[in-house]
Amino acid sequence: MESRVLSRASTFASFSQLRKPPRENNNNNNSVSFVSARPIGAVGEGGNLIWGRQLRPALLLESSSAGKQRETVKPCLAAASSSPGSDSAGEAKPVGFIEKYPALVTGFFFFMWYFLNVIFNILNKKIYNYFPYPYFVSVVHLFVGVVYCLVSWAVGLPKRAPMDSNLLKLLFPVAVCHALGHVTSNVSFAAVAVSFTHTIKALEPFFNAAASQFILGQSIPLNLWLSLAPVVLGVSMASLTELSFNWVGFISAMISNISFTYRSIYSKKAMTDMDSTNLYAYISIIALFVCIPPAIILEGPKLMKHGFGDAITKVGLTKFITDLFWVGMFYHLYNQLATNTLERVAPLTHAVGNVLKRVFVIGFSIIVFGNKISTQTGIGTVIAIAGVAIYSYIKAKMEEEKRQAKAA
Fold first, then answer.
1. Who's near 250: CB < 8 A, 6+ residues apart?
2. How far is the C-alpha of 314 from the C-alpha of 316, rounded, in Å?
3. Position 96 confidence tier, pLDDT thresholds 50, 70, 90
4. pTM
5. Torsion over CA of 118, 124, 126 and 128, rounded to 10 degrees?
């Protein structure tokens, strides 16, 4: 509320400065500096999202309104610049490709997000076929991503955001949940078919709704609960006849759902103005340190005794190292690109995009690995995905209505 008041106050102040005589304008450039300034938390700066989730809706709404204000101010500035003594009168700024074709750019973002996600899942499962150590592979995923972030910070793309003890306390629970969800997802990927793991993970909206209702105390409408019934039914049908079913894979995927649900809860509490790229980098660093101890304790002795040796014997040292490097790179890039992509679209597009992503991953994994699935498993998977689509559509519409109400 305070930021909204300050923003409006600065807007009125800028308009009043624009109305001053030319003599005063030449001595005071506050109006020009206002136009070039960006509101805190603007989507163009990365926004305030974690994995596509909005942290500070008020600030993002203020960003859109500030954008409209800037459009109103620009003509005034053009008139001011055409006054005597202005060297750039009448010059129009060239329109870049991103501004000229925003739909094409957003479509490219979606394509790369899906492409990297599918490649990651396929390569990840291939590694587990000859190197079944998910705790160690999870550490590799995060380690490669952290190295990538450090190099990016070193060259200033992006510029590293400062970190303090208070921000660390806010991000630590988010990172712990991220680490736990990531590791248990990989345990499930190593134990069962990729398509089955993603079918189980379709239950994540159910856990999110339950947490919102019973932990956060938010009222969930009846139609939203009813839309989750096909998801539960479909996952149950698929689990009963899944040929690769085992309890380790099933329970690990369920723990992953719960972990990512709590990650969402803590993300809402970790309200920060830091852009999403820096935010995800810090979360990855913290999660890496969380994942290292269990990997050493649970898999360290096996890896030193025969794990590394067996993998090198099967595929060779060069392929083993390059596989681990690329799977880590694809993991970080698809997560980062997913965050950047979801910042560019509306909640409804975001919801549809997430559902289609899961369909792509399930479909391509079945084609690549030739997994045999029963008829009931196939029907159950389709029902579950359809339920997720209905749930996502209803929830996105509700969020859009709330946003419009606040804007009004």
1. 188, 192, 200, 239
2. 6
3. low
4. 0.69
5. -150
| Cα–Cα dist 26/176, whole Å | 54
The first and second tokens of residue 136, run together, are: 């160690």
Place of tokens 């390059």: 322
Which of 53, 37, 1 lies closest to 279, judged by CA? 53
Torsion, CA 315, CA 319, CA 325, CA 331, rounded to 10: -60
Are the beta carbons of 130 and 327 closer than 8 angstroms? no
Which residue matches tokens 């989507």? Answer: 43
Q: Which residues of 368-389 are buried (b: 16+ CB within 10 A; e: fewer)?
A: eeebebeeebeebbbbbbbbbb
DSSP 44: G
Q: What is the spatial distance between Cα 47 and Cα 205, in angstroms, rounded to a whole number?
A: 23
Cβ count within 10 A of residue 49:
22
19 — pLDDT class (breaks 50, 70, 90): very low
Helices (H), 156-246: 165-191, 194-201, 204-214, 222-227, 229-241
